[in-house]
C-alpha cells in the first residue's frame, strides 16, 4: 500500500510504502533513525538492525541527505513525535542517491540560502511557511466566496498605472508602451460595476529601489472591490477578512506554527473589530513619542508604523491621510478636502502595513480634475472615467499584500521567505 505521510493516521499497525526523501539521520550501533519527508509531512523511520538484517541496515546507515527512496514499514503510534506516528522500517529501496547536498544541518547565511532557494524550499521551516501561505490563499477564496464575491482576473500587461508612474516596469507591447501591473484596482472597479462585489488574486510588480525586510519587486495581492460600499463598510470587510484568515491559519496550521515557534496567543486575539486612528492623531502621537522628524503632510515610514502598532494587540487602521500623498482616485473627506477616505492597516508586532484601501471618487467632474492635476494622460484613463458616466455609484476596495501577511502570521522576519522564489532588488535568480 503506497501512502503519503499525512495519511499515516489511517494506517496504524499496517505495512505501508512511502515515497520520500531523507531529510536527516542519526544512528547508533544497532539502530538508525531516518527523518523522512514527502512534501505532505515528516515522519521518523526507525531501522533496527536485528529486524532488517545487515544489508538493509547498512543501506540506512550509508544513505545520504536528500536521497530519494521508497521506504516500507509498519506505522506505529508515537506520542513523542510531533506528528504522532513513526515508521518501523522493514525495507529501503533507494531511487536516487543525492551526492554532497549543499544545505547541511549546520547554520548557513541568508545569501547562501537564497542562492540555493530551489533546494532551501525542502527544509522543515520553508515547508511550514509555504503551507501557511497556502492556507491563507485557501481561506481567502473561502471567505470571499462565502460573502458572495466573484473572482475576476485583471490583466498583467497594462496601459495605465494606478499607483503612480515612478515604480513601473515598462515593456513593449509590440509597437506600444506597456507596463507590468502594479495593482488590478482600476479594472476591478469596472468589474464591480458589472458584478457588484469582486476580488482578484494575482502577481503585481513594483520597480521599487527598496531593500527592506518588507519589500519585494514581485508580490501577490488580494484585491476586493465593492459597489455601494462606502469608507466605513470597506473597513468592516477588511477586519472581518483578516480575522477570518488568521483564525483559519490557527485552526488548520497548528503543526506549522509550532514548527516556526510562533507565539499563537498573539494570533488568538485577532478578532474584529480593529482599532482606528486618524492620520492627524497619528502625527500628534508620534510627535509626543519623540519623533521630531514627522510633520503633517509627511508619509509615515516603517518606524512610525511600528511605534503606532505597539500600542495595540490587534491590527490598527490609520485613516484619513493627506490628499497630497495619496493616489488620484481616492474620495476626499466630504467635511475637509485636504484628507481622503482611505486607510492603511498596520499589523501588530512590527510587521508593518498589510493593507491599503479607500473609497474611490465616483463623480466624473472631480475625477477628471484629479487626473489633470496629477498630470496623467486623459486618453489612457478614458475608459476609467467612463465608469463615472453610466450609472456611477459610491464604491470602495482594498489590496492586501500576501507576503507581508504570511510573514506576520508565520512570525517570519523577512518577506523573502514567504514566497517560493522571491524577486528582490539585485536578485532574479534562481
Ligand atoms: O497600498 P498599496 O500600494 O495599494 C494598492 O496598490 C491599491 N491599488 C490596492 C487597492 O486598493 N486595490 O498596496 C497594497 C498592499 C500593501 O499594504 C502591502 O501589503 C502590499 O500591497 N505591498 C507590498 N508587498 C511587498 N512588497 C512591496 N513592494 C509591496 N508594495 C505594496
Automatic annotation (TrEMBL):
<keyword id="KW-0067">ATP-binding</keyword>
<dbReference type="Pfam" id="PF00152">
    <property type="entry name" value="tRNA-synt_2"/>
</dbReference>
<keyword id="KW-0436">Ligase</keyword>
<protein>
    <recommendedName>
        <fullName>Asparagine--tRNA ligase</fullName>
        <ecNumber>6.1.1.22</ecNumber>
    </recommendedName>
</protein>
<dbReference type="GO" id="GO:0016740">
    <property type="term" value="F:transferase activity"/>
</dbReference>
<dbReference type="InterPro" id="IPR004522">
    <property type="entry name" value="Asn-tRNA-ligase"/>
</dbReference>
<dbReference type="GO" id="GO:0003676">
    <property type="term" value="F:nucleic acid binding"/>
</dbReference>
<keyword id="KW-0648">Protein biosynthesis</keyword>
<dbReference type="InterPro" id="IPR006195">
    <property type="entry name" value="aa-tRNA-synth_II"/>
</dbReference>
<dbReference type="GO" id="GO:0140096">
    <property type="term" value="F:catalytic activity, acting on a protein"/>
</dbReference>
<keyword id="KW-0963">Cytoplasm</keyword>
<keyword id="KW-0030">Aminoacyl-tRNA synthetase</keyword>
<dbReference type="InterPro" id="IPR012340">
    <property type="entry name" value="NA-bd_OB-fold"/>
</dbReference>
<comment type="similarity">
    <text>Belongs to the class-II aminoacyl-tRNA synthetase family.</text>
</comment>
<dbReference type="GO" id="GO:0004816">
    <property type="term" value="F:asparagine-tRNA ligase activity"/>
</dbReference>
<dbReference type="InterPro" id="IPR002312">
    <property type="entry name" value="Asp/Asn-tRNA-synth_IIb"/>
</dbReference>
<dbReference type="GO" id="GO:0006421">
    <property type="term" value="P:asparaginyl-tRNA aminoacylation"/>
</dbReference>
<keyword id="KW-0547">Nucleotide-binding</keyword>
<dbReference type="GO" id="GO:0005737">
    <property type="term" value="C:cytoplasm"/>
</dbReference>
<dbReference type="InterPro" id="IPR045864">
    <property type="entry name" value="aa-tRNA-synth_II/BPL/LPL"/>
</dbReference>
<dbReference type="InterPro" id="IPR004364">
    <property type="entry name" value="Aa-tRNA-synt_II"/>
</dbReference>
<dbReference type="InterPro" id="IPR004365">
    <property type="entry name" value="NA-bd_OB_tRNA"/>
</dbReference>
<dbReference type="GO" id="GO:0005524">
    <property type="term" value="F:ATP binding"/>
</dbReference>
<dbReference type="Pfam" id="PF01336">
    <property type="entry name" value="tRNA_anti-codon"/>
</dbReference>
<feature type="domain" description="Aminoacyl-transfer RNA synthetases class-II family profile">
    <location>
        <begin position="130"/>
        <end position="430"/>
    </location>
</feature>
<comment type="subunit">
    <text>Homodimer.</text>
</comment>
